Amino acid sequence: MSTGPTHAGAAERLPDGARTGTRATIETPAQAERGAALGAFLADCRAALGDTHVLTAASAQAPFLTDWRKRYTGRACAVLRPASTAEVAAVVAAANKHDIALVTQGGNTGHAGGATPDASGAQAVLSTNRLRRIRALDAANDTITVEAGCALADVQAAARAAGRLFPLSLASEGSCTIGGNLATNAGGTAVLRHGNARALCLGLEVVTADAQVWDGLRALRKDNTGYDLRDLFIGAEGTLGVITAAVLKLQPMPAASVTAVATVDTCDDALRLLALARARADALLTGFELMSWYCVELIDSHFPTLRMPLARPGGATANGFAVLLELSDHESEAHGRALLERLLADASNEGVVRDAVVAQSLAQSQTFWAMREHIPLAQARDGLNVKHDIALPISAIGEFISSTDRAIAARWPGARMVTFGHLGDGNLHYNVQAPVGQDPADFLRAAQAPMNRLVYDQVHARGGSISAEHGIGQLKVDDLARYKSPVELALMTAVKRALDPHNRFNPGKVIAAPPVP
Amino acid sequence: MSTGPTHAGAAERLPDGARTGTRATIETPAQAERGAALGAFLADCRAALGDTHVLTAASAQAPFLTDWRKRYTGRACAVLRPASTAEVAAVVAAANKHDIALVTQGGNTGHAGGATPDASGAQAVLSTNRLRRIRALDAANDTITVEAGCALADVQAAARAAGRLFPLSLASEGSCTIGGNLATNAGGTAVLRHGNARALCLGLEVVTADAQVWDGLRALRKDNTGYDLRDLFIGAEGTLGVITAAVLKLQPMPAASVTAVATVDTCDDALRLLALARARADALLTGFELMSWYCVELIDSHFPTLRMPLARPGGATANGFAVLLELSDHESEAHGRALLERLLADASNEGVVRDAVVAQSLAQSQTFWAMREHIPLAQARDGLNVKHDIALPISAIGEFISSTDRAIAARWPGARMVTFGHLGDGNLHYNVQAPVGQDPADFLRAAQAPMNRLVYDQVHARGGSISAEHGIGQLKVDDLARYKSPVELALMTAVKRALDPHNRFNPGKVIAAPPVP
Using a CB-CB distance cutoff of 8 angstroms, which residues of chain B are in contact with residue A187? Predict the structure, then answer.
């Protein structure tokens, strides 16, 4: 470990930046050396960033030390808030000089603990929240150049002001940052049409492990000049470098979006509807979301103003699903609506769809989306649950759900399946709620590990992914090591060693074994 | 150099696999050792592939030793034709054991000499042309799994037979291979809608430098489990590993494609038409190609059956352009045609377009595309010319063309500008033909180096790319070293060293300085 031995006193002593006052314990020479290095690191950071942007007080640090889901709380020798790429490079140079590990953090909305420091107190958090400039918007090139700490919603708003769409969209868009979106290759609700964050990025600026600035801010649709470094930093969760800015692709703003909900008896029927919608609407199809009927009931009980306008398909005992479809049309709302209505009528005639409603107003359309987006909130109100963010070949999803549902029911009778997600991308949030009457916390404690294993084994057997859009962080490091082949782990380790030879960036995240320098 | 010292006798002596007969010169001990190693390598390859797939005779090797443009001719100790991934791995293992460099080659249609061995005779060509199986087609997942040596046209045909579109399309599709398309991240005519080869690939199988098989054949739209190795091998031109198979994305087959040609006075008008077409048709716009009027004249003189149905815009002395537009429609031909006609009528009313014709039949549509595709052939008939495959931010193209045209006219009066390309992607084939009356070969010899420099300087100053879709190969290795930043070159070198530590794969291509082990 390049972060060196840790000791309990570090976090309390180091915030002052100098070793003053009485110490309750006698330091070993190694501890004293380490303490001096940390003090010198903080002094260098203060010189580079100014005193007010090197946070050492516990109260100031607190918001940066616990992840969004409150699964992980770490400690940090400092929270650093650089305001420019040059300041980020200065921080990395100081970290190199004094051998301090850096944990880059954006909006701190990650789902895998990837931006939370470890418990040692020896790591520093590098917050991007002062890197907020929108550097350029080139409407004729349909690109925007933004700094890593820009909130996703601010990028969307800047694009909208120029008559353009930045299509990345996800629940935390008000607080998550573009840097975090890219570091985790975020997904969201528009992947079906526009791809993941990776597909929306043309160029990057990155501070490398040797504190250099890589200016890869290219605004080009085609560029075949050497290795694809951009896509290596994207999705690396801050373990290969610090993304400081990006060039993002913009789209023309559609004339209208039209939304519908439909009920289907089985997931296979939902897949038939998806195939029909893709064949008829192709790129106009911008959303295709699945919800098991238990999701609908959860929303109904926790958010009664959000009402599904359709009845449970197949009667009270059936396992039905609801589907949310969205078309985005560049011609007109009337054209999109007619296309969607024709599609649903034909699907109904073919027996694929039980019932369907096309939203008659923007308000109704927003209600449909709100139902979909309130599922995690309804789950949270119902108590803790076992979560899985998985992806499968679309052709395997129906069989996966029925077979895994059966396996879970056999082992945990009465467990309730909160199955929803971006069916058009093959991405399910396959979550499991405690049986009625069982304490959710007890259920989570007992079932989580074996259920994760059961579900991931089923996913792996079908060529699926154990993390579709949330990344690995610290949550799934052990799972990654289990399910990746030794060949792939060796390639990943070789890349990590090549680009971050001293394991400076986010050590312990993504790949389990830190490289030996 | 891991390929060791080369000597003139190697290619003649080694094909027999054993050192027999009289030798005209006395070998040094190093030469003898090298000869023994080559002999042992060939013996291992024959054991793995069978005698008939280890080509050593000059006549058998010849088709593999000269690139498509006939700019480079190399020599090889053998041309190896493995028929399976396991055989590729056996070849790499043998190459490791005996320290032989491997040059992977697909359809040998590259434009940058990337698949041609060097002149030493010490390298072996690893041909993928027996890796031709289509392993799977999953219509419900819209994916196809193919081996690297499949011709692009065969993949298109397999997709079509399943009612799907594989949208990658380029002039050499009858002979180029998917492995080569991926290794060079090929572009072509459908990038505007579907992206480059990289965007069409979900997963890869690769034989790595330590002769392991990385099974990354994932058929998923979302997968955030670690570093993006796939995109690192894509576009690496065979310098990081041997791509043996890939999972490719398929699209629903459109109901119809509708094509039009239009004339515009200036490139800026063409860009205005592009913006209008994107806003109105968005993803329905699948082609937007630009041709300078001199291209139209070239075709007219060499392929008189391909006639542009429109007059030169602005009269005989003006620098006009023709634009080819294509919409692909999933509703109906009538819908696509009406949309295209409305678009062109409005563009005409706004003064953006001089004149336009929508193809009235499939035959006329094919003629429009044939005109576009015959430009390089017409150029070739007219004699050699100075070629540039460049990309620019779309917003910079108009100014780039006028300013670079002026600079070229000032230095090479009378030079004729064969400017065409995929305007929607910002990708120009900015080629320059000798002035009337000047010998094309003389012109090429004298003008090529300084004109490349002039054009690339202009491209670089505007944040453009010196290789949009043809890659670096050996043609642009020196240019890459000139125009990439030291930071980026260092990152690329680190990646190369990490994944190919002994410089086994395609040494000397893409990055100039081979890594020191």
Answer: 222, 224
